[in-house]
C-alpha cells in the first residue's frame, strides 16, 4: 500500500468515527507537501503502518502505552494546580499500546527532519545519543517532571520566549473565525463546565491547529473575565491510528486520559476528557512550543536530552513494562537507535516525495 492509498484508507476509517471539516482536511493535505517535517507530523498513521516492516528487528520490542506520534514539536508548557510552569509532552491524541522504541526513533527522525527546514541543527549521532541518554537516565531515576521554577532555567527561557508574548497570543485568539450555524449541546455544555464562572458570556470560534488531528472539529470558547481574556478549547478525539494499522475496523478505546493520569508529571488541572472531547485551557503559557519560537541561542543536545527524559516520564506510566524495556535496551547494540532512525528517515522521505509528486499532478 503506497502513501496515497494509505491516506485514503485511514481517512475513510477516521470518518466513520467523526465527519471531517473538509476545508481543514484540504489544508492538511497541502501542508503535507511543504516539508518532510510537516509530512511526518501529519502522518502518524503511515508511521505505525510501516514500522513493523522497516524496523522488523524492533517489532518484538516490549510494548507499552506509547505516545505514537511523538516529535520535537509535541512539547509545550502548562500550569499545574500550584500555578507552577511545567514543560513536557502535551499531546496524546494518538496514544496506543506500541513498541517503546518507536517513540524514541520517531523523536530522533523528527529532529533530523526539522533540521532540513533549519529549525534544529543536530547531527544524527548527536541526536541519538542525547535522546537515548535522557531516556535511560529518566528510567533509572524513576522519572521526574520538568518544573520550570527553581530548576531548568534554560528551559524556562525557551518556554517564555518573546514569540509567546500574551498580547500576540490573545490577538491570535481574537482573530479566530466565529462558528457559523449551530454546535451540539455536547460541545457547549462541556466548554461551559470548564469556564472560570458559571453563566459567563462567550463567543464560540473555530480553531485550526496542529497537523495530525487537522480536519477534525475543534472549538474555542473566548470570553472576557474579570479584566482579561480567557479561552477554553474542545477538540474531538478519535481512536489512535495504531488501531487502524493493526486492522481494527471501527475505532476503539482512547487512551488520552490514561496517559494523563499515569505518567510521571505535574498535571494540568484544566485538561480532561468529556465523552470523546478533549477539554483544555488555552493561554500564552498553556500551549505547544513551536520550533520557530525557540531562541536562536540554545543547546540542541540539551533540549533533546530533556525530550528523551520526558519520554521516559510518560513510559513510566506503564510501570509493569519498564523492567522488560530496560532488559531489551541492555541487550541491544549501541547503534540500534541510529540504524532504526536512518531506516525510518529513508522510508519517510520516500513517502513524502511520492505524496508531493501526487499533489503536483
Structural account:
By secondary structure, the chain is of the alpha+beta class. It is built from 14 helices and 11 strands. The chain has helices spanning 3-15, 22-31, 36-42, 44-54, 100-116, 124-141, 153-159, 166-174, 185-193, 241-245, 256-262, 300-315, 322-331, 336-359; strands spanning 63-66, 75-79, 85-89, 96-99, 146-147, 203-206, 218-225, 228-236, 272-274, 277-282, 287-288. The strands form 3 sheets. It has a 5-stranded antiparallel sheet with strand order 6-7-8-10-9, with helices on both faces. It has a 4-stranded antiparallel sheet with strand order 5-3-2-11. Strands 1-4 form a two-stranded antiparallel sheet. Strand 2 (75-79) and strand 3 form a beta hairpin. Helix 5 runs antiparallel to helix 6 (124-141) and helix 6 packs across helix 12 (300-315). It is globular, with a radius of gyration of 20 Å. The chain starts with a helix and ends with a helix. The model has no long low-confidence stretch (mean pLDDT 91).
In short:
The protein has 361 residues and is an alpha+beta fold. The chain has helices spanning 3-15, 22-31, 36-42, 44-54, 100-116, 124-141, 153-159, 166-174, 185-193, 241-245, 256-262, 300-315, 322-331, 336-359, and strands at 63-66, 75-79, 85-89, 96-99, 146-147, 203-206, 218-225, 228-236, 272-274, 277-282, 287-288. The chain is built from 14 helices and 11 strands.
Amino acid at each position: 500500500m503506497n502513501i496515497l492509498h494509505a491516506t485514503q484508507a485511514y481517512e475513510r476509517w477516521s470518518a466513520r468515527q467523526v465527519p471531517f471539516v473538509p476545508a481543514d482536511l484540504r489544508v492538511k493535505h497541502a501542508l503535507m507537501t511543504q516539508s518532510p517535517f510537516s509530512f511526518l507530523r501529519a502522518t502518524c498513521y503511515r508511521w505505525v503502518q510501516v514500522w513493523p516492516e522497516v524496523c522488523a528487528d524492533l517489532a518484538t520490542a516490549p510494548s507499552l502505552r506509547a505516545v505514537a506520534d511523538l516529535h520535537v514539536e509535541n512539547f509545550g508548557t502548562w500550569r499545574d494546580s500550584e500555578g507552577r510552569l511545567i514543560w513536557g509532552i502535551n499531546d496524546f491524541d494518538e496514544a496506543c499500546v506500541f513498541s517503546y522504541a518507536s517513540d524514541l526513533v520517531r523523536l530522533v527522525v523528527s529532529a533530523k527532519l526539522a533540521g532540513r527546514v533549519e529549525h534544529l541543527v543536530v547531527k544524527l549521532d548527536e541526536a541519538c545519543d542525547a535522546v537515548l541518554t535522557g531516556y535511560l537516565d529518566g528510567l533509572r531515576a524513576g522519572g521526574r517532571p520538568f518544573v520550570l521554577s527553581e530548576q531548568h532555567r534554560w528551559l524556562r527561557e525557551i518556554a517564555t520566549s518573546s514569540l509567546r508574548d500574551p498580547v500576540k497570543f490573545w490577538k491570535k485568539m481574537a482573530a479566530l473565525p466565529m462558528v457559523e450555524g449551530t454546535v451540539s449541546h455536547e460541545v457547549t455544555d462541556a466548554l461551559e463546565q470548564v469556564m472560570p464562572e458559571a453563566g459567563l458570556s462567550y463567543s464560540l470560534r473555530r480553531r485550526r491547529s496542529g497537523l495530525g488531528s487537522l480536519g477534525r472539529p475543534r472549538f474555542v470558547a473566548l470570553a472576557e473575565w474579570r479584566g482579561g481574556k480567557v479561552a477554553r478549547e474542545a477538540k474531538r478525539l478519535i481512536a489512535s491510528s495504531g488501531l487502524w494499522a493493526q486492522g481494527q475496523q471501527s475505532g476503539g478505546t482512547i487512551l488520552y486520559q490514561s496517559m494523563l493520569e499515569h505518567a510521571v508529571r505535574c498535571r494540568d488541572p484544566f485538561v480532561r476528557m468529556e465523552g470523546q472531547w478533549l477539554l483544555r485551557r488555552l493561554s500564552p503559557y498553556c500551549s505547544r512550543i513551536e520550533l520557530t519560537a525557540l531562541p536562536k541561542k540554545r543547546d540542541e543536545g540539551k533540549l533533546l536530552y530533556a525530550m528523551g527524559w520526558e519520554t521516559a516520564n510518560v513510559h513510566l506510566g506503564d510501570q509493569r513494562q519498564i523492567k522488560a524495556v530496560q532488559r531489551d535496551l541492555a541487550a541491544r547494540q549501541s547503534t540500534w537507535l541510529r540504524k532504526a532512525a536512518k531506516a525510518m528517515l529513508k522510508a519517510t522521505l520516500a513517502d513524502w516525495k511520492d505524496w508531493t509528486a501526487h499533489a503536483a499532478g
